[in-house]
Amino acid sequence: MKLHLRILFLMFMTASGPLAMGQTIPFFGKVVTQDASPIPLANVLALDAETQTIASFGVTDEEGKFKLNLRESKPYLLRISSLGYETMEREILAESNAPSPMEAVLASKAYELDTAEVVYELPVTVSGDTITYKADAFASGRERKLGEILGKLPGFEVDENGEVSVQGQKVSKLMVEGKDFFDGDTKMGAANIPANAVDKVQLLKDFNEITPIRGLDNDETLALNITLKEGKKNMVFGDLTAGAGPESRYLAHANAFYYTPKFSINLIGDTNNVGEPAFTIQDYFRFSGGLGALGSQSGGRVSFLPDDAGIPMAQRNNAVELQTNLGALNFNYKPSSKWSHSGFLIGSQTDNRMASISQRTYIRAGDNDEELTADNQVAQQSGILKYAATYTPKEETYIKYSLFGKLVQVHNRTSQWSRFENFDNQISEDTRQRPYTLEQQLQAFFTPLEKHVFSLETGLQLKMQDPILELQATERPFGSILPLADRELYHVWQSVAVQTYKQETLFNYYYLLNPRNHLNLTLGSQWTGQEMISGILQRNPGEEDLDPGEAFANDISYTFQDHFAGVSYKTRINAFVFSPGMNFHHFRLRDQQEDTENLTEKNMLLPHFYARWQPRSSQSLTFQFKTEAEFVDVQQLAMAPVIKDYNSLFLGNRNLQNGLYERYNLSYNQHNLFSAFTVFSSLSYQRKRDDLAPSVNFIGLDRVNTLIHAEQVNESLSGSFQGDKRFDKWRAKGRANISAASTHNFVNDQPNLNQSFTQLYGVSLMTTFFKKLDLETGYEWMRNAYSSGQAANSFETNKPFAKIHYAFRPDWMLTGDYEYNRYLNKGTGTDSRFGLLNLGLTYGKKDSPWEFKASLYNALNTQSISRDSFNESLISTYAYFIQKRYLLLSVQYNL
């Protein structure tokens, strides 16, 4: 039987396994007060009468109802508790022919005892906007890091990059004992915090660390707080790992943690070449220090080109070689109740190699297909630091100063071989850059009077980008555009320097009319100044460099100013919250290049609206509408050509101003502890008027790109659904993501319509057999369909997968994860099939700090995987070569 068919068989066996293990029946009940009023959020435990362990648990809903899954004809001790009521205990026997649901009446407590003896800790407790999960109630004991525990909590999802989502919403901050962990980064926490140190996971809804404005904004931020077990406080804990294998494979990793009420420090060190990057280039560019753009909250912003543009992003599933080194420190110090200091320092180094073969279909008439073989070697050294000081002399005052900086050096060497029509072109690109960012921010919030709240936020940023490109090719690059001298090997050199200064100030005044109504007045400004210098030269060995002239050099200065005032109103009517508002903007744009100045001023009114319906704490429906004006940065205005790739030039357009975007979002979530069911769904629609449309002109294979304002409206619609349901010993999950977009561009000066439709559907089933075997099986189906002018194609991926943790003996554990991929290129009829399998065998005694492991990566020795992409000028399908099979032997010591 083929391996992927065996996986499907395992999925069937998983679904039928709980039935074979013993018959369970639902046990229903209702918890009420002495006057028959329902008691919501009461905790219900069923204890096995023989072993005195928790057999099942639940939480009552708004009507006081609960449901437990119990073994038929087995005695249990039912324990029901709720804050402010006496705990009730009753012996029960679950029977399939039992009469109507039982009713439990709790008596009110006349007084509270000074001390209480806690015999059992509840797996889930709810208090206001905080849900607390007892980690040991969901863990099997085979978990190694925090991320593995989070993945087993109801409604939680940890993606392959380590980022955490709950009920479909991304978690914005992670704390340990109430202190930020590397600026709240969930990936750093999920991958490094030892699982055996975690006591509870607290989910904090509508989180805001700033007390004076808590509940005043519409920011539905999610945060996680990890509380540690008593044995892990006031002492050093963590783990040390070292491993080696054939062909010079190595791994070394160290985590050390120390927590006290006043001081905490976290140290992380890692070096390996086995494809386990502790910190990637993506992570570097993702880290922002938590300093968000203040002015963009009002709806007006500059869209800066990203620092990582053109840098290949290597990951374990698309790279031939990955070598990473990391050293990181995080600290929190609270010398008094008024002052706290925090910060982190991260230093990283990576050397990655990516190799691929791609089939590129250009959106143009004639022969459109190019075969491109590429080999990329990317080396980077980076550093990130942050320091923050917070002063809170009283609850009504909050002042915080933050300093954030990052610097990276990236060297990308690319060798390519292009075959197009009857031409072969050998290409070499060498790109070096050292972008850096330095940013400061001051936040101050005051509540001088009970109904009046004031805030002042200001930020200053300095940013530098300086890519240098050296391009060599056997075919003349941009033959009819760049005036190059004839050579057997063409050598073109380009330098670009972009310096950005940015200053933002935001003032808010909140007037609390009453607990259900408040008014918010906003004043603010943002100023951005940019300078860009670029030039192109032809370099010839033994000869003087050839300068094509001023027409191929940029020297431009650009300023963007935005002064705005806004008003919004927020009211609560029963289960509804409404918050309409608008911002009035005065924009001023000025660019100077080619000895001329271009000045534009305009006024705009940008409305926004927020509404939320929350009939109960576990259910909500949210609608958001926002209008945004998005302006370009200096690189999109510079009129002299800039080389983007071996066959792609970009010309700026100084007549560009802004696109006007309308964004609508409707989301629904339900987290029902009564039925152990979680669902999240969202629907987003975006309408872009005066959008910045790409315009591409083909000269042979060469592309000349620019931006113009599109008269047509660009639209996109996306929807997502995630569901999570627990049935006794197993858990079922399903998800769906659909996205459709219709955009306009110009190809060879002719209007062109681009359409894309992507779909992803996935289901999975998880269960634990006999407390020894954790098994997850699932299936994903994805389809990407693209059409544009002369070209159209669709790609389909079918992926069954399985993950297993099997403790086949008391001290031995087998782990494995497998996925089978069938990738179909409908345009060419290509049918690519590949499987990825990783195996691990671990030995470690229960009470010993030592653990030994043998890991076999890519056990099937798969050579390559398939992917696809789409943009305004071409459709591409890739075969990425990946790391070959290798073995690693490692030892871990738990501190």
UniProtKB/TrEMBL annotation:
Q: Does the keyword Signal apply?
A: yes
Which intervals of the chain form a coiled coil? none
Give the SUPFAM superfamilies listed for this entry: Carboxypeptidase regulatory domain-like, Porins
Position of the signal peptide: 1-20
Pfam annotation, one family: CarbopepD_reg_2
Q: Name the domain of life this protein comes from.
A: Bacteria
Q: InterPro entries, from UniProt?
A: CarboxyPept-like_regulatory
Q: Keywords of this protein's UniProt record, alphabetized?
A: Signal
Q: What is this protein called?
A: Carboxypeptidase-like regulatory domain-containing protein
Which organism is this entry from? Negadavirga shengliensis
